[in-house]
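Entry type: protein chain
Record version: 2
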Amino acid sequence: MELNGVPATIEQVKTLALTNYGHFTSMLVSDGQVRGLSLHMQRLARDCRQLFGVDLDTEQVRSYVRHALAGTAEPVTVRVTVYDPALDLGTIGRDADPHVLVTTRSGSLATPPPWRLQAASYRRELPAVKHIGLFGAMNQRRAAHREGYDDVLFLNPDGTISEIATSNIGFVRDGQVVWPRSEWLPGITMTLINQGLDEPVSTEPVTLSDLPTMEAAFATNAASGIRAVASVDTTEWPTEHKVLQQLRELYADIPAETV
């Protein structure tokens, strides 16, 4: 755990627990390379301007990540969190000096197991920002876990589907990819897939009543790639659909960028 390239202290990171204001991105690093690295940096820069009103030096961010990865050979999931340790509940409106916290955990290149999702009515604050305010989403995920599901699928007040707690969701209908039309976090993996597909991408409102018309469903996340979704509530799908395999192959063929 390094803050601006040096080991972080408890005093510096306690703001994350007590004030909980900032944003982040997570990426799977293998052999010092990341699919969609430029998109991750663009996300960090965009969210920093929105939350703090300042520009982020993404080349400096990359140097912090390289430093944290020094000597690491195995795949790891790297989380880059941007926040200001000096801001607290009483000074949150001050001009900010965002710092960069880099943390790592074990990563995997294996195909992740399918998910069973529980639908729940919930909308994240500032859906387009990957902010660290995860209480609501984790509360919904915990409820789903307690009911025996793997994760939670969020529904808007009008019943349309938006996203999974920390992933995007896509569907397959008539052999084509369909994304739900909603306010959600534009995921890096989802963006890379859309860029790599030969055919136009379909985005439309999707409700639970539409799910039986879908041939398959999948989740996308930068740390786990493409994961089959086996079910949402009582609607089930095959987890070995040919389009899902095509998407995995497409994703695997996307050139990675060196950190």
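Comment: The helical segments are 10-18, 37-52, 58-69, 135-146, 188-196, 242-252.
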